[in-house]
Amino acid sequence: MKKIVFLLVPMLALVLAACSTADVEQASIADLVGVYDDLGTLEVAVGEASAAIPAALSDDAASLTLFAPTDEGFGTALDELAAVCGVAEYTAGDLLGVDQSVLDLVLSYHVVPAEVFAADLTDGPVTMLAGGDVTVAGTTLTDAVGRTMNIVRTDVLASNGVVHFIDNVLLPTADTSVLNCPAS
C-alpha cells in the first residue's frame, strides 16, 4: 500500500501542475508589449495611437503577427528618419509629437493580419494590416522605403497571435508629407 501511495503522490502532483498550467490565460499582444522592458518605446507609441491600435492588439478574436521594434530599434529609426525627412536631427519628441493618423499608419504597418511563426516566414512579400508589403528574406525584413532590419527574437506567443522583435522601425512610405516630418 505504501508503494502505491508513494507512486500516486508524484503522479497527482504532475496532473495538478498540468491542469493549472492549461488554465492560465495567455496575455494578448497588447499586454505583451507592456511586459517586456525592451519594448518600452513601443508601449508608449501604442498608448499615443488612436484607440483602434490597442484595441486591435488586444482583440482575442484576432489572429495577428506583430513585428515589434525594440527600444534600440527606435533609436536607430530616429537617426534614419532624420535622413528620410531631410532634417539634421529627429528626436523622440518629434516621434511622440507626430500626428495620430501617422502613428496609426506606422504601427499598423508592423502588424500582419494572420498568425505567422518564424518557421512559416517564407522569402517574399508579406502584406501588412496597414496595406503595403514588407519583404522577408530569411531573418531580415525590408520596408517600403528599402530599409532592412533584423528579426532578433521570434515566436513570443500571445492569446491573439505571435510577436517577433525587430531591431528597427518599419516605414510604410518615404513620402515626407505622409510621415509628417518636422521642419528643417
Helix content: 40-55%
Q: Approximately how much beta-strand content do the residues carry?
A: 15-25%
First and last CA, distance: 84 Å
C-alpha Rg (nearest Å): 20 Å
Instruction: Using the alpha-carbon principal axes, give the shape.
Output: globular
**CATH superfamily name?**
FAS1 domain
Q: Regions with pLDDT < 50 over 5+ consecutive residues?
A: 1-24
In the CATH hierarchy, what is the class? Mainly Beta
Number of strands: 7
**CATH topology-level fold name:** FAS1 domain
| SSE class | alpha+beta
Number of helices: 8
User: Mean pLDDT, as a whole number?
Assistant: 84
- Which architecture does the CATH hierarchy give at level 2? Roll
- Biggest sheet strand order reads 2-1-7-6-5-4-3
The largest sheet is:
7 strands, mixed
For the record, the count of structural domains works out to 1
- The helix/strand series, from N terminus to C terminus, equals HHHHEHHHEEEEEEH
